[in-house]
């Protein structure tokens, strides 16, 4: 039976006067993913669309089965430890927390919750970080097959 997952990340986007490598060096944090404007989303597929903006992203180091609260706190720990650098970057570029929740019906797990506490609220006021939430609900294959 599939377990519910939460994927939480922080992104710096739409920069043109600095490279992802320079951001990595400034922060001394290795990104989970970088995007370079004009490159193919899938370099192995010549028909793949081009990336429209530069991006530097870090995922929560806790993994997709940790709670939203634990994942958010791990990212806040990283950002708060380098607050002066993030303050300058967030002032110049678009910054966002992205959260994707994948739910599987009938897996006997409760719906994952997203609670944005005062620690989060204080930080985003200071740094002007957007929040994007996507919810995906899938039938659980084992439940679907047993109903045939």
Description of the structure:
The chain has 148 residues and is of the alpha+beta class. It has helices spanning 20-27, 68-81, 83-92, 118-127, 141-146; strands spanning 5-13, 33-35, 55-59, 94-105, 130-139. Strands 2-3-1-4-5 form a five-stranded mixed beta sheet. Strand 4 (94-105), helix 4 (118-127) and strand 5 form a beta-alpha-beta unit. The longest helix has 14 residues, at 68-81. It is globular, with a radius of gyration of 18 Å. InterPro entries: DUF4279 (IPR025459). It comes from Solitalea canadensis (strain ATCC 29591 / DSM 3403 / JCM 21819 / LMG 8368 / NBRC 15130 / NCIMB 12057 / USAM 9D).
Total strands: the figure is: 5
Indicate the mean pLDDT. 91
Largest sheet: 5 strands, mixed
Quaternary structure state of the chains depicted: single chain
Question: Could you name the ranges where pLDDT drops below 50 across 5 or more consecutive residues?
Answer: none
Radius of gyration: 18 Å
Strand content: 25-35%
Strand order of the largest sheet: 2-3-1-4-5
Give a quick summary of the entry.
This protein has helices at 20-27, 68-81, 83-92, 118-127, 141-146, and strands at 5-13, 33-35, 55-59, 94-105, 130-139. The protein is of the alpha+beta class and 148 residues long. The chain has one domain (5-146).
Key phrases:
26% strand, alpha+beta, 5 strands, 148 residues, five-stranded mixed beta sheet, DUF4279, DUF4279 domain-containing protein
Topology, please?
Layout lengths: L4 E9 L6 H8 L5 E3 L19 E5 L8 H14 L1 H10 L1 E12 L12 H10 L2 E10 L1 H6 L2
Parallel strand pairs: 4-5
Antiparallel strand pairs: 1-3, 1-4, 2-3
